[in-house]
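Chapter summary example: a protein plus dinuclear copper ion.
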Amino acid sequence: MMARSGQPAVTRVIFTGLALFAAGCKPQTKYPLDTLAPASNITRSFYNIFVEVTVLDIIVLIVVVGALLLAIAVFSTRTGSTRPPSVKHSDLYLEIAWTSIPMLILIAIVVPTLRAILQTQPYAWAKDTLPVEVIAHQWWWEFHYPTLGVETADELHIPTGKTIHFELFSKDVIHSFFMPQVGGKRDVIPGQVNQITLVADVPGEYYGQCTEFCGDSHANMRFRVFVQTPAEFQQWVKSQLAPPVKPSGGPAAAGAKIFADAPCAICHTIRGVSGFSKEYTYGFRGPDLTHFGSRTTLAGSIMDNTPQNVALWIRNPDEVKPGANMPTLGLSGGEMNELVAYLESLK
Ligand code: CUA
C-alpha cells in the first residue's frame, strides 16, 4: 500500500508500520525462528492450540465488546428520563451463564494443552525410538546418539517418521533448548534431566537457539536441525561413523601436526588423534571435530563453515564469541592456513 505524496509523513509511517506488522504475522519459513510453521507432531499440536485459543479469544472479545456497546446504546439513562434506574440485585440465569461459559472455555483449552504436554514426554516410547543426548555448554550444543555411536556439535540430524527421545543435560548453567519448528522449547538444567519426545515429519533445515540467558555469548548459542528422510539420515550416520580423513601430504598434513602439537588436542576430539573418556564428555571440553568439514556452520552455528571464517574464529575466538573458553593460539599466517586446510579436510 502506497501513501500518496500529498499525505503527511505520519500517515506514511502508520501505513508502513501496518504493512510490516501484517508481513510479520504471516507464517513464513523464511523467518528462522518461526513458531507458526510446524514440522513435527508436537509443534503441530502447539500450533493447533495457538489457533484454538486465538479463535476463542476473538469470540470472547466480540461478545464482550458487543454487550458493552449494547448496554451503552440501549440501557444508559438519558437526559430528561424520569424512569428510575434498575435495582435488580441478581439474575440466576445470568449467573449460571457467566459461570459455566468461561468454565467450558477453560476446559476446551486445558484438555488439548495437557494432551500436548504428555505428548512431549510420554511414559513409554515406541520400540524403535532413537535416543539423542543433548549436552548444553557455554556456548555450544553437543549431540550424542548413544545407540549409533555418533557425536556432533551445533548441528543436529534427525530422520522423519521416527520417534526421537531427547535427554537434555547441562554441566554449567541453565540453558534452554529451543527449536521452534521441530521441538518447541525446554530448559536444560544442571543436575536434572529434562526430556522431549517428538516425530519430525517435514524434511528441511531448521534453526535452533538457546533461550535462557546463560552468560556473555548466550545470543551466540545457536544450532541447526537437519530433518532428513530415513535414507539420507542413514547416509549421514555412515559418514559420521567413518574414521577421520588422514591427509597424506600438503598443507592439510602439516595442519594435522599443528593440531596434535598445539593446545587444540587438549579440548577437541578427533577420533584416533585425540579424545576423552565418556565421563569427561559431560564436563568442560570443546566440540568433537572428527567430521568438522562436513558441518555447514561453526562457533555455536553463528558463522558459515568457510576457510575464511574458520581462520577468523581461530585467530581470536573471544572477539567472535565473547567469553568463549577457546584460547588464542598465536599461529603464524602459514600455520593458520595449514590448520584450516586440515580442519576443512575432515569431511
Ligand atoms: Cu545457553 Cu543461553
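Key point: The pocket of dinuclear copper ion is lined by residues 136, 139, 175, 210, 212-214, 218, 221 (CB under 6 Å).
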